[in-house]
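Problem: given the chain below (237 residues), write out its structure.
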Amino acid sequence: MFRILLVLSGSDHWTLNDGTRHPTGCWAEEFVVPHRTFRRQGVDVDVATPGGVRPTVDQVSLDPQRLGGEGKAADLRSYLDSIETELARPMALEHAAGRASEYAAIYIPGGHAPMEDLSRCAPLGEIITALYDAGRMVTAVCHGPAGLLPANRQDRSWLFEGRRMTAFTNEEERLAGLAQRAPWLLEDRLRERGGVFHAGPPWQSHVVVDGNLITGQNPASSRAATDRTLGELQVRV
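Solution.
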C-alpha cells in the first residue's frame, strides 16, 4: 500500500501586522478527514511538524455553531482524542526530509498556523520538491498551500510557477475578518510567486488538480481533496 506524509504546522498563533498574536493552529476538519480516510483505506500515515513540535488544534474549528451542530464537533473531538498519543509525538520534518523517497504523497491541511511557520520551512520545501519532481502527489488545503511557498529550485525559482492552484481566498479572508490585519494574504502571495490561481465561491468545496499537484480552497474542500488524492494514487500504482 502507500505511505503518506501528513504535515501540520507547529505554531499556535499567526502574528498579525500590528504585532499581536492571533490564536490558531491546525483546522480540525482539514486534518481529521484525510487522516481518518487514509487510515481506513489501509494507508500508512506519518504526521510531522517542524521540529517535531506537538501541533495545536484551532479551538474555533471545534465550535459546534460553526460546524452546524454538536454532533460533528463531538465526532472531531472523539477522533482527535483517539489519536492523542500520535499527536503528542509527531515526526520532525527535518527527519522526514531524509525519508522523502518512502512517501507516495504529502498532504498539508490548513488553519491559519501554516502562515506562521510552514510558509518559510526549508525542510518542508525540500521534501515537497523531492516528491513533486519524482512524480509523487502533493496536496494542500485551505491555508496549507502556504507550505508550498518554500519549495524552490536551486536557481531560487518557485517549483509551482505556472501551475494551476487554489487556496483560502482573499474574499474568504475578508469574510473571516482577518484580511485588514493580515501581514500578507495567501492568494496574493501565490499569485506573486507565479501560481495560476483559481477561486471558487466562498466556503464551497473547490479543488484544482494540475498534474500531481492537488489544492483545495477551504475546509469544505477537505473531503474532495482527500478523495482525489486517493484516486490519483490508485491510478498511479
